[in-house]
Amino acid sequence: MKLSILDQAPVSSGYSAKEALEATIELAMLAEKLGYTRYWVAEHHDLKGLASPAPDILLGIIGSQTERIRIGSGAVLLPNYKPFNIAERYNLLATLYPERVDIGLGRAPGGSAETSIALAGNFLEQVKKMPELLDELHHFLHHNFPADHIFSKVSAAPMPTSAPVPWLLGTSKKSAILAAEKGMPYVFGHFMSDQEGPSIVKTYRNNLKQGIPEIIITVSVICAETTEEAEEMALSNLLWRVQQDKGKGKDGVPSIDEAKDYLFNDHELVMIEKMKEKQIIGNPQEVRAKLEKLQAVYQTDEIMIVTITHDYEARRKSYQLIAEACDLEIISDCINDK
């Protein structure tokens, strides 16, 4: 089983955005050493508590501090941009870091309606054009527009020796079908979806007309030495999501003490139990067993893990425990050891 990481660059209460971004870079360096396959950075806009509106900028730094791990976006929210602009940015990354760059692509707004207007004007109109945006991006990445096309002589320079690999991210059958129609690898956001994930992934497989199905499942995981410690760590993350649902949580991920002191009402307790159904929380052996079960249910060989804890060292430790439990191959000669 391959394991990868999705980092949303969470800002914890009592910490600055600078510290959150530094923790992201440090975690990427550790992820490479621990044998994770990919390190993807999310894109969010004007969301207090998440510090990454521009994944490509972070990836430029992460790429310079690592040597082997694949790096990518999770996801570029394509309706916010012109495909040419994205092709230029990720071609530049692929030129610097050959055969290591992925472009995870999504169509969510990544922020409020007002933020979407500030970014892209009529966002919903752009969402409707998602299939055309994907085609245009593909042509720019491979410099293969038809000869009579207006962009046939336009190059998204620099052109790398190996193009970035586009993946489509989603949580619905609509996204699964689109990925299949375009012959793209597909990432299903298990941790975000209320729908029946395995049937959505099956839809992708059944509709794929060309190539071999490539599937990543993204899941929220918190691992600690003991189950009790993991559940305690998870409580602050769960409280934060409750606060976000209420339009609060702007101070970032609350501490464990803040979570323990919070009085959850009955509605919030129901919310938490529902959220925990999509999470994996436990000690290393429990986490491995649940990951293997998820792998079997989705019939995929790669799982991408998102872990949000208040303490950044606890997050690092969680990923380390998972890597050790799942027998990832630790790399000892990484650049971050020098």
Automatic annotation (TrEMBL):
Coiled coil: none annotated. One of its GO terms (molecular function) is oxidoreductase activity, acting on paired donors, with incorporation or reduction of molecular oxygen. Gene3D superfamilies: Luciferase-like domain. SUPFAM superfamilies: Bacterial luciferase-like. GO terms for cellular component: cytosol. It comes from the Bacteria. Residues 1-296 form the Luciferase-like domain. Transmembrane segments: none annotated. To bacterial alkanal monooxygenase alpha and beta chains. This is LLM class flavin-dependent oxidoreductase. It comes from Oceanobacillus zhaokaii.
